[in-house]
Amino acid sequence: MKKILNIFFYVIMAISVIVAIYFFLEMKNEGRVSYLLIWTYILFALAIGLTLVFAVFNAASNPQSLKKMALNIGFLVVVFGVSYILASSAQTPVTAALPDGPPSEMTMKFTDMGLKVTYFLFVLTVLVALLGPVISAIRNR
Prior knowledge:
Blueprint: H1 2-25, H2 32-61, H3 65-86, H4 93-96, H5 105-139
Helix pairs in contact: 1-2, 3-5
């Protein structure tokens, strides 16, 4: 299994290098960006798919992990829910002056929600990174 994963990794890396080289060699061609974006979308979909597959395999092999997974999903649902409730759908001066017209209220609401989720998770990550070693040191005393 490890050999198959290594081969898969090297194939993905080789394709990424080829796409990157093509991107930089074809600077005069406007279409080069589309290949890079398509490859990025493929990698993103692959990452999501593999994450879900490995989560299911982990849950099947370790039923205790289901409780932890449910807590994590519940935490994310709460974070997204609170962010959605706190999000504003108001137009800003920049969005109101866009040449194609301002975005819809729903677009503004989801954009604000995404920003609030990002800010909250960033602050949480920094706190965990800073406080983790301190808590670990206190426990190991």
